[in-house]
UniProtKB/TrEMBL annotation:
<keyword id="KW-0689">Ribosomal protein</keyword>
<feature type="domain" description="Large ribosomal subunit protein uL5 C-terminal">
    <location>
        <begin position="89"/>
        <end position="181"/>
    </location>
</feature>
<dbReference type="Pfam" id="PF00673">
    <property type="entry name" value="Ribosomal_L5_C"/>
</dbReference>
<keyword id="KW-0687">Ribonucleoprotein</keyword>
<dbReference type="GO" id="GO:1990904">
    <property type="term" value="C:ribonucleoprotein complex"/>
</dbReference>
<dbReference type="GO" id="GO:0019843">
    <property type="term" value="F:rRNA binding"/>
</dbReference>
<keyword id="KW-0699">rRNA-binding</keyword>
<comment type="subunit">
    <text>Part of the 50S ribosomal subunit; part of the 5S rRNA/L5/L18/L25 subcomplex. Contacts the 5S rRNA and the P site tRNA. Forms a bridge to the 30S subunit in the 70S ribosome.</text>
</comment>
<dbReference type="GO" id="GO:0006412">
    <property type="term" value="P:translation"/>
</dbReference>
<feature type="domain" description="Large ribosomal subunit protein uL5 N-terminal">
    <location>
        <begin position="28"/>
        <end position="84"/>
    </location>
</feature>
<dbReference type="InterPro" id="IPR031309">
    <property type="entry name" value="Ribosomal_uL5_C"/>
</dbReference>
<dbReference type="Pfam" id="PF00281">
    <property type="entry name" value="Ribosomal_L5"/>
</dbReference>
<keyword id="KW-0694">RNA-binding</keyword>
<dbReference type="InterPro" id="IPR020930">
    <property type="entry name" value="Ribosomal_uL5_bac-type"/>
</dbReference>
<dbReference type="GO" id="GO:0005840">
    <property type="term" value="C:ribosome"/>
</dbReference>
<dbReference type="InterPro" id="IPR031310">
    <property type="entry name" value="Ribosomal_uL5_N"/>
</dbReference>
<dbReference type="GO" id="GO:0000049">
    <property type="term" value="F:tRNA binding"/>
</dbReference>
Length: 190
């Protein structure tokens, strides 16, 4: 039984990919920028004192992404932060293929507009390799999270990896997918 594709993935394959081929002057369809993976990460500094923080965030990220996350461990001991080597200090999940497209669709159309006083996301968070990092202060903007069971509002980092090797092509891809970037204001010289 075949799964249905996400509406964003269908839109990419039918409309966005041909447009990008024309705009970027690419002849080969395999060279057109595409999403490769999305990594959702949350660092939990309070986990060194409160052991339930890891379990709570694992539950919430599993609800948000639809995939079970893994706990990230510290690589070395840092005495000033009271962290020992091998201690659980975060949670992450890597989304690929169908799960990635479904998450991206929900992020763009549902979660980002729910942010209080939202005016768009900055276009300066590219890493020169075509990947975009988005930080969120509240994980409760996702409708899957039951706010009555949340003990503390925590932040998330979402890294969107593309097959592009430069930021201009990745920006065009994300813009066409519907990412609400902040519109740059041009100053008039008088």
């Amino acid at each position: 039984m075949a799964k249905e594709k996400s509406r964003l993935q269908v839109k990419y394959e039918n409309e966005i990919r041909p447009e990008l081929m024309k705009e970027l002057g690419i002849d080969n369809i395999m060279a057109v920028p595409n999403l490769t993976k999305i990594v959702v990460n949350s660092g939990l500094g309070e986990a060194k004192v409160d052991r339930t923080a890891i379990d709570d965030m694992m539950r919430d990220i599993a609800l948000i992404t639809g995939q079970k996350p893994v706990a990230t461990r510290s690589r070395k001991a840092i005495s000033n932060f009271k962290i020992r080597e091998g201690m659980d200090i975060g949670v992450k999940v890597t989304l690929r293929r169908d799960m990635m497209w479904y998450f991206m669709d929900r992020l763009i159309s549902i979660s980002l507009p729910r942010i209080k006083d939202f005016r768009g996301i900055p276009a300066k968070a590219f890493d020169r390799n075509g990947n975009y990092a988005l930080g969120m202060n509240e994980h409760t903007v996702f409708p899957e999270v039951d706010t009555t069971q949340v003990t503390k509002i925590r932040g998330l980092q979402i890294v969107i990896c593309t097959s592009s090797d430069n930021d201009e092509h990745a920006f065009k891809l994300l813009e066409k997918l519907g990412m609400p970037f902040v519109k740059s204001k041009k100053k008039n010289k008088s």
